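As a next step, the fold was encoded as tokens, giving this record:
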Amino acid sequence: MVEIPNSLRSLFSAPIKEQDGTYIVEVPSSEIDFEALSADETYRVAILESPVSTESSVQQESQRAPSRETASHSSSGPPVEEGEVRDVTIETVGDQGDGIAKVERGYVVIVAGAQPGDEPTVEIEQVQENVAFASIVDSNPRAF
């Protein structure tokens, strides 16, 4: 499993496109909307090999609107669905102060207000290809 450093600000999938002799990686608007990144700033980028090998498949995937069907538990999509309630373990805290948990296949779930070691029950509120955002519905489900 790949270790995710505390300095990781954003994780998403995008095709690399050639334009006038340079290469462009399109940043999803949600990364700006959720303040993971800011426009007109410079960032260090890591490129990881995608299991999707054809450019057309990547383009089709990035152009699809999120839906309950694309957020199914199949091995090709995110392992969580919007509205799903589940227990997670917070492993670290991101730069924005939110807790970070990993679930099946290393999929990242961002939990506002959680700290490392917390084991809250969360509700998945938004699902993206590589990350989901959740809120705490029970902060200590294992306490008696």
